Amino acid sequence: MTSRNPFAANERIRAILEDLEAVRDNLLALSDDIWASIDHNDPASLEEGVEFKRAYNAKSTAFDAVATDLSTLVQQYTRVRLDADESSGAGDGTANDRIVAELNRDEKHSLAEDFTFKRPHGFVFDGQAASGIRTWRRMYELVCQQLLERDPARFRALTTNPDYISSRGNHGFSTDPSQLRSAMPIGDGYHAESNLSSNGVRDQLRRLLATFERPQESLAIYLRQDRDAGRTGGVSE
To answer: pTM of this prediction?
Structure first.
């Protein structure tokens, strides 16, 4: 009997983990698209849309919880991690310059774009780079961690800032994870709402940069499709 190739198995597991995240993001994006297509000036259409959104949100929230639990379980048992290929330039100027140079081989994207059905590969925020990012949720987590490290007092204020509390009282940040639909730990006891589509992450990052008085141009995003297209096209490594 031939022996199994552990590398191939690891790649299959990582692909499944990425697919779970992609389905989660696509479900959220579909919800956003359907809601935007509803005629909000038509009472009957709006009422039907609200009923759909209520039912859809409940189902997608339940899926998010199951997908997160499955991903955690698989990563713990197989020791295959979604963040295994990540590289960060934090605290190492030489490594940071190398990562920035690698990322700059691909097209730079901004928070002004539509990221539906697209996936990140890396980002540079105020000169600090990270690559090997596989999900929008992870990119959002890393940017939030940078903001917390740079300005803890301002980050603390996010938990009560009305810009991050919806009209229905849903919080974007909290020290109590039970206040959030899908709580993502950031550090120092803070959690962020992570039940966001790719464009939901984009919108929240825009808001955060304004709150922390940083221009939108301070965050450059690099997409997986550009990196993969470069490799397919024969660009030398």
So the answer is: 0.84
